[in-house]
Design a protein that fits this description.
The complex is a heterodimer of chains A (350) and B (250). Chain A is α+β, with helices and mostly antiparallel strands. Chain A has 10 helices and 7 strands. Chain B is built from 8 helices and 15 strands. The chains are: A alpha+beta (350), B alpha/beta (250).
């Protein structure tokens, strides 16, 4: 936290306040103590200038002695001692300055000597006023910070909730698939049975996995095939699926449910939004220490809402980053009418 | 029995259309005139066959069922169906429209058919329902991403990012876009509240302009201003428009 007074605007205000105090000081000496105007001015200048400097340094006291962590008794003890000590030094210094620099006349010297008690009293009073100001300032800054932190935390919690929702299967998909099954029971009961089994297997796989698990790539691919089979019943030959999978990839360990969002995206932005046949290409290869997974779909950049990294892809990026402590493991490419997502999954030796 | 009624089915999934065809078999006085895979085909079929009843899916490619409805002058009786869309469901509920949630049973379908058949004899009631849905959609949609317009028999989709400025023309709004000019039957007020105020500003009673294409504001006569766009075009600015523009551009 920066010093609250040592800033241009506040400093002007601070200096003006001290000028006012100094003038009151002069008036007090002149009319109540019968001191000559010149000596009243000199006295005021020396004492107040010094205190104005002192008061700035009390900030560092307040910063080091926190009110939240200290018992009230200890606090009074600390600040009481500091108040007494600083007031004594203040008086001593001012006294020494006045006596040594100025040719002090007798009348004023007597007054100066006799003023010790009330000056100490004022010093202590000023001390506590400054400290109170600093503490109010510290408190308000901390309070604002806390409000900000709370707001941040709230958005984080919301995001997390949203993510966990996104991780589940799209209800739209489930109900439309069930509608297709209903249709097949009338036209092709045999196929209706097959589709029911596929949907169940797919749901079971999805429900059994969570974010922490890793699975074999082969299992992931199997579940994706179920998903695509189901979508093919719904959309027929509107989906043109091509795959290119190196056999040696199949045993690689990957974070579970990492492919599903990629394919859901491809179907959603490609097939759901297209009037014509849409190509979806899937490839897996081993590149050195990385398993490279590419999912691409054709889409219409004119009308599509597939702008870039939606929540699904962002979620994958973050999961990869967390799992492997490495960034840049997901890449998005857009080429005229092709949307491509590339994953680079590090091969971890067991 | 009753006179023959014409029917059009609009759904992007073949199995979903099959269900409807199957459930419709027993209604021997209904004629299925067309099966459509999307809103474009839907519009065409509706204009060609003037059906009494249509079966309409909401989520379809390019244009939704609602967007398609918006383009129709005469609204037939509609049996809506949707798999899961809280948004759409809300629209049906507030306008007291009947809708089928996929998958639905034969009994539920028959119920919807009974209502639809009654509505074929009550044009005003049907119009009230359909207009209620469209009104609710209008009021509850956030900022637009695209605008669907029909010019003659051609349907165009204008992505909002291609929109330059809008101009009031009687009951219509002329959309000036990168792909040309299009008329849309909507109010300026509608567009003012459905275009992101970070991107568009109502500069005048008759004009809404994309902020990023404004080159400068020029004094035009005494206390009146004109907007100069980056293509050289200039448009009038009203007093309140000028206040808004000053706030945005400064």
């Amino acid at each position: 936290m920066k010093h609250p007074i040592l800033r241009r605007r506040n400093l002007t205000f601070y200096i003006s306040a001290w000028i006012v105090i100094s003038l009151i000081h002069v008036l007090f000496l002149r009319f109540s103590q019968n001191i000559e105007v010149l000596w009243a001015f000199i006295d005021s200048l020396v004492f107040n200038l010094l205190y104005a400097a002192f008061a700035l340094s009390f900030w560092y006291m307040c910063k080091s002695i926190s009110i939240e962590n200290l018992k009230i008794l200890k606090l009074i003890e600390n600040h009481g001692a500091a108040a007494a000590f600083s007031s004594l030094i203040w008086f001593g210094l001012s006294y020494a300055l006045l006596m040594n620099i100025f040719p002090v006349e007798e009348n004023y010297r007597l007054f100066l000597r006799g003023s010790l008690v009330w000056r100490i009293f004022i010093g202590v009073l000023f001390y506590f006023l400054s400290v109170a100001f600093y503490y109010v300032y510290i408190y308000s800054v901390n309070f604002k910070k806390q409000l900000l932190k709370e707001a941040e935390l709230k958005t984080l919690v919301k995001e997390a909730e949203l993510k966990s929702l996104k991780f589940q299967i799209n209800p739209h998909f489930i109900f439309n698939s069930l509608n297709s099954i209903n249709s097949l029971t009338m036209s092709d009961p045999q196929k209706a049975g097959e589709m029911t089994i596929k949907l169940s297997d797919y749901l079971r796989f999805t429900l059994s996995k969570n974010e922490k698990h890793k699975t074999k790539l082969k299992e992931e691919i199997d579940s994706i095939k179920l998903y695509l089979d189901i979508e093919k019943v719904r959309f027929g030959d509107k989906i043109e699926y091509v795959e290119e999978i190196q056999d040696k990839c199949l045993d690689a360990q990957v974070p579970s449910m990492i492919l599903q969002p990629l394919f859901e995206n491809a179907i959603k932005h490609g097939v759901y939004e297209s009037l014509e046949t849409v190509g979806i290409k899937f490839s897996c290869s081993l590149n050195g220490d990385y398993l490279k997974v590419v999912v691409e779909n054709e889409y219409d950049p004119e009308t599509s809402t597939q702008k870039g990294e939606g929540i699904g892809l962002k979620n994958i990026r973050e999961r990869l980053e967390k799992t492997y402590s490495k960034g840049n493991l997901l890449k998005i490419e857009k080429e005229s009418n092709v949307f491509r997502v590339k994953l680079f999954i590090p091969i971890v030796e067991k | 029995m009753a006179k023959t009624l014409n029917v059009v089915i609009i759904d992007d999934e073949a199995p979903a259309r099959e269900v409807i065809k199957n459930y419709l078999k027993k209604y021997d006085y209904l004629r299925i005139k067309a099966e459509c895979e999307n809103g474009f085909e839907g519009i065409k079929a509706i204009q060609e066959f003037k059906p009494d009843i249509i079966f309409l899916d909401i989520q379809m490619p390019k244009i939704t069922g609602f967007e398609m409805l918006e383009l129709l002058q005469k609204k037939p009786v509609i049996v809506f169906s949707t798999a899961y869309d809280q948004y759409a469901m809300k629209a049906f509920e507030v306008s007291a429209a009947d809708y089928l949630l996929k998958p639905y049973s034969r009994e539920r379908f028959d119920e919807a058919m009974n209502r639809a058949l009654t509505l074929t004899n009550d044009k005003p009631a049907n119009d009230k329902i359909v207009n209620g849905i469209l009104k609710h959609q209008d009021e509850n949609v956030d900022y637009l991403e695209r605008i669907v317009v029909k010019t003659g028999s051609k349907i165009s989709i204008i992505p909002v990012r291609k929109l330059f400025w809008l101009e009031a023309q009687d009951d219509y709004v002329m959309l000036h876009s990168k792909d040309g000019n299009f008329l849309k039957q909507k109010t300026m007020k509608y567009f003012e509240s459905h275009l992101d105020p970070k991107e568009f500003v109502r500069a005048h009673r008759s004009y809404i302009v994309r902020i990023s294409i404004i080159k400068q504001i020029e004094l035009f006569g005494k206390e009146s201003y004109r907007l100069i766009l980056s293509n050289g075009q200039n448009l009038p600015v009203s007093r309140t428009g000028h206040v808004k523009l000053k706030a945005i551009l400064s």
